[in-house]
Amino acid sequence: MTELSIRTEIKGCGLPVRGADIDTDRIIPARYLLTVTFDGLGDHAFEDDRSGGQHPFDQAQYKGAKILLVNENFGCGSSREHAPQALTRWGIDAFVGESFAEIFFGNCVALGLPCATVSAADIVRLQDAVEADPTQELMLDVAAQTISYKEGTIQCTIPVGPREQFISGTWDALGQLMDAGTAIDATAAKLPYAKSFQST
Amino acid sequence: MGQTLLNKVWEAHKVRDLASGQTQLFIGLHLIHEVTSPQAFDMLRERGVKVKFPEHTFATVDHIVPTDLVERPFIDSLAEEMLVAIENNAEEFEIPLFGIGDRRQGVVHVIGPELGLTQPGMTIACGDSHTSTHGAFGSIAFGIGTSQVRDVLASQCLAMDPLKVRRINVTGKIDAGVYAKDVILHIIGHFGVKGGVGYAYEYGGEAVAAMSMEERMTVCNMSIEGGARVGYINPDQITFDYLEGRPHVPKDGAFDQAVEWWKSMASDENADYDDVATLRGEDIGPTITWGITPGQSVAVDGVIPALTAFPESERSNVQEAYDYMDFAPGQKIAGTPIDVAFIGSCTNGRLSDLREAAKVAKGNKVTTGIKAIVVPGSQQVRQEAEAEGLHEIFLEAGFEWRGAGCSMCLAMNPDKLEGRQRCASSSNRNFKGRQGSPTGRTLLMSPAMVAAAAVGGEVVDVRSMMN
Fold first, then answer.
1. ipTM of the complex, rounded to two decimals
2. Domains of chain A by start residue, with CATH
3. pLDDT tens-place string over residues A67-109
């Protein structure tokens, strides 16, 4: 793997988007899925929530932010990878939150975007701190599982599998999966249904 | 201790342990559709990689398909472009496609079981969160994103983290007028929309054992709405009877052999679960969502819950739901007026769903001013329903009778809510804006309850129309 794929330290300004159960339809409404590419999705991130112009994604102080600070069960609902694609194309490089929906989390790993979890109290502390001073730089240290901000350092959690993938630069799973080579064929050959499958 | 079905399927499909601690799992059946696959094929082309096992992947079109006029090219040029993309990709990579005009076309989670592609003991993946539907057969079925669709196309494998298993027993009997949809809404209400994160849900107990395959699919379909990426039910005689004779199911002696293997994959009597929970079937009534997550539901004879009924941490979300849905705490859910009625989706677009709705519609009329549409889950469901005359019952009652697709579940085709319309819907998500209008309002319920609401013009207890 190249140096470029290693994701150990993510630095940048923070951006709080508050609320539990923010689903992927809200992150990118389905009408923007009428496309054969992911191009241009960044412009439509949180489109319907932004209609009033008061959404953090429209506020000048968060322009250029890299780390999205969210609450519980972020990214629930549809499996659309368009959701993290829209957010990363808007400029987000990592997520810190109380919890993440499972498919969203997996999609983020596949794009090299770490999702770190912290306690409910700590995420509110971080969101408050960033609101008070949006210019401060945050630093997510993937290996140490910490997030640093102006007032200190908070412990966070990234499950061991994805953490290793970010540290070793193997978060793009395809290379590893294909490396298994004949072991894949051997597993397929053991499955009783694999042989009779095409009996139309 | 014994093994769960999840453990057995996992071991049978394990290619190897990865350095990250994840498992490389072989995927037995890969289903693709037009929305989440085009970028995956582009990634293959960029890397110069072929599809490893084209015979394990099947394609159909569902999300963007118009349900009234399907003449090509589609009026929506973006939809047409997506159709052309999957047609070209299927041809280039030699993947069977059940496309427009094919009698096998339909919602991906309806046609997999219908064609007998979905079988017990398999691993299944599809770029769609409702892939959990296939777990009704005792398969382990994952919803995945587009990069993982690429991974499966190129390697027939996924890198997966281990899952825990929560056994959910539903004991006793389900009352008449209460359906599988009510059971799963009740389960989600009980455990919450993130209660299942990290778990596979294994559903069982007398009430589940008594369900037909179509009912079991409805239950497993909405596992993801409870946070569980995977939901399944152990295969039994009802499963085997459903499968026998379907196009992709082994025949004759091979069928008996398959049944033996399927039985062997079921969870052992003494299986070790990470969690076990029991709910009483008798406690479940017709259930309706009042809020903006599938966990915010209430029985039809209930009222919108008070803010104080929720923990402090949830109250801002509950307030947001009251405001968005225009409900006040203490208000009865029955009697809520509706503008649109939608019967269909991968949750409730199967023949038995249409039969139950037709029983309610028969001899009645949709209230003037309400747009009511019935969208069969597949062309086959449509044909079977027409053979029974269900379409005539619906048309006579004032429902529109459409072609197969996802339609107003997520409104990627021309079927959309407008403005603040309130929709009684048999689909799976009541998220803000889900049905195509950024301010539209969705009330999830069973198909029979949707039919009752269309006739009544408001939320009605379907049981009052059954005597």
1. 0.95
2. 3-169 (3.20.19.10)
3. 999 999 999 999 999 999 999 999 999 999 999 999 999 999 9
Cα distances from B37 to residues A42, A70, A118, B109, B455, in angstroms, run 19, 28, 33, 16, 39
Contacts A78 to B, Cβ<8 Å: 128-129, 410, 429
Measure in Å the smallest separation between the Cα of A43 and chain B Cα atoms: 17
Residue A107, chain B, CB below 8 Å: the answer is yes
The amino acid at residue B363 is G
CB–CB of B127/B148 below 8 Å? yes
Contacts of B432 in chain A (CB under 8 A): 25-26, 48
**Cα(B129)–Cα(A77) distance, integer angstroms:** 7
Tens digits of residue pLDDT in B372-417:
999 999 999 999 999 999 999 999 999 999 999 999 999 999 999 9
Answer whether A2 touches B (CB < 8 Å).
no
Residue with tokens 């094919």: B102
Residue-range domains of chain B with CATH: 5-160 (3.30.499.10), 164-283 (3.40.1060.10), 287-465 (3.30.499.10)
Query: With contact defined as beta carbons under 8 Å apart, do B141 and B180 qualify?
Result: no
Chain A residue with the nearest C-alpha to that of B155 = A178
Closest CA to A8 of A123, A136, A116: A116
Chain A residues with CB-CB distance to B225 below 8 A: 77
- Nearest Cα residue to B309 out of B324, B286, B282, B291: B291
